[in-house]
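Justification of computing resources. Each target in the renewal requires a structure prediction run like the one illustrated here; the chain below, 258 residues long, is used simply to show the kind of job we budget for.
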Amino acid sequence: MERRNFIKASAVVAAASATGTVMASQATPSASKEIYEWKVYHFKNGGAKSKIDGFYKDALIPFLKTKGVKVGAFGEYGQTEPPVIYYLIVYPSMTEYQAIKKELWKDSGFLNAAKGYFETTAELGTFTRFETYLLEAFDAFPQLHMPSKDRTLIELRTYESNNEEAGQRKIKMFNSEEITIFDKYGLRCVFFGEILAGPQMPALMYMVEHKDMEERKANWKKFGDSPEWNVLKNKTEFANTVSVVNKIFLVPLDYSQI
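Resulting structure tokens:
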């Protein structure tokens, strides 16, 4: 019996050694991956924006702060009319996301703080519509990295895929090597998330911070020219993973926590 156990153990060790390089390149799943809610508000005119600003600043953000939830608030780089506002709400986990959503509408402090907003906008709406995306953080990037103080330009990128399997291979590409290459060449990322539900699917979303447009251009060029990226992008296992790349440029609003 002991000899059989020894042989079985030796086989396991040999198999692990043979696949060691493969396993080392795979991200280890984290039990504490964050959940992100990305919300996009569209308006008919600029004056309505102040009401949403007030709702977030005076009611929603104070409530979420008591739950350990951060909120990023962003406007578009360059003034757009009518404006668009973007919010990134960071929940510690899916369990807490679900619990906090239920608590929100039972919390007297939040309801009292939001009462004026609800009453004044019930008949005449503030926004034309808002979009919501629900995302789960990547294994290799399970928690948001706070932007540096001197980074004033935010780039949000959404990668769409032609089918679900292609989308999963792109996520694997990021988890295994691509995020590491980003970091090496100065592309400092804020978050990565797989879109679980939203208007664009199958897709993933991530955010990169830059000091300015000049730094952005220089760092993307370094990444694009790097030998690591040019090897990775030509691997057959990652062929045809992305069909559409969407990019928008953002700046933090004065009450943003991110």
